[in-house]
Specification:
Layout (H helix, E strand, L loop, with lengths): L1 E3 H11 L13 H17 L5 E3 L7 H6 L23 H12 L2 E3 L6 H11 L4 E5 L14 E5 L8 E3 L1 H8 L6 H8 L14 H11 L2 H10 L8 H7 L4 H8 L21 H11 L2 H15 L1
Parallel strand pairs: 1-2, 1-4, 2-3, 4-5
Antiparallel strand pairs: 5-6
Length: 299
């Protein structure tokens, strides 16, 4: 199980009341919600291995160089990511919780959590379940390799399993065509323009007709045969921009991630350290639920 950590703790932050505080008054709603989510997911899905992927760089320079508008609307005055004031100090608490529980967490320089997940999912030698609330990672779904997404946009208790058939059902495209689909459609939440004038329905129709984005571009370069009215001109107008958008949309699959040991432990690496952490932040119950879930995997 690969956790898109930021996606999870942002949802926990907005889903758990900010009245949840540590003994010193620090708001810990995101930390509590994140730990409760891990406990729930592990007890329900029973993975044997668990990795929390982190955003070491939420807006990598190489993506901005390709598409300058990428996440530009989320840049704060100090140049960092615009994050709620009460959430920022909770990220180190969440990281400390992962370490104290013995959960493998990974962030890589110049890379987002998506890229860590993409690399681990691509190189895994076992079935993979990706937990995220963002559709970007649908591009990793692969029935042959048993890579699926557990989509939590409607909440952890209403998570939806996404395989190739579900992608086809939702978008009427081939199951592995999501990255090409997203490149053409664009994504305003990430500042990705897509192909102006080409929405979801048109992008899906093009993929059904020509197979993939390479096939679409090759056909567009030859003639306007088979294209909906006005669509050919729109593709030609965006022709030079599409390669850059593809690079930004595509998650990395070849990061030099060091050797890891993500097996879920029956016991934390140091119980005393975990106890001090739980007491310090008033998270004893949440920590206990995670430990119970981990023990159930080994039962």
């Amino acid at each position: 199980m690969l956790l898109d950590s930021a996606s999870m703790y942002f949802r926990a932050f907005y889903g758990v009341p900010d009245s949840v505080v540590a003994p010193d008054g620090t708001v810990v709603n995101a930390a509590k919600g994140f730990l409760d989510a891990i406990a729930y997911l592990v007890s329900q899905r029973r993975p044997t291995h668990l990795v929390a992927a982190m955003d070491a760089d939420w807006r990598p320079a190489w993506r901005v160089a390709a598409v300058p508008s990428y996440k530009a609307h989320r840049v704060a005055a100090d140049g960092g990511e615009e994050v709620p004031d009460a959430l920022t100090p909770q990220v180190p608490i969440i990281e400390a919780a992962l370490d104290a529980l013995g959960i493998c967490r990974i962030g890589m320089p110049d890379a987002e959590a998506d890229d860590v997940i993409g690399t681990l999912a691509t190189t895994a030698t076992m079935p993979v379940e990706i937990v995220t609330g963002d559709r970007d990672l649908f591009q990793l779904v692969d029935d042959d390799r048993d890579v699926t997404v557990l989509y939590i946009a409607k909440g952890f208790g209403n998570a939806e399993r996404i395989d190739e058939a579900e992608i086809t059902r939702r978008y009427d495209i081939p199951g592995r065509a999501y990255a090409d689909f997203a490149t053409m459609r664009g994504d305003t939440s990430d500042g990705l323009p897509g192909v102006p004038g080409v929405g979801e329905k048109t992008a899906a129709a093009l993929l059904r007709s020509f197979g993939d984005l390479d096939g679409i571009l090759a056909a567009a370069a030859r003639s306007d045969d088979g294209f909906p009215r006005g669509c050919h001109a729109k593709l030609l107008a965006a022709f030079d921009d599409i390669p850059a958008m593809r690079r930004v949309v595509a998650v990395a699959r070849d990061l030099p991630i060091p050797a890891i040991e993500p097996v879920i432990r029956a016991e934390p690496p140091d119980r005393a350290v975990l106890d001090v952490f739980a007491e310090r932040w008033g998270l004893r119950n949440a920590v206990s639920r995670v430990l119970e879930a981990f023990a159930s995997v080994h039962a």
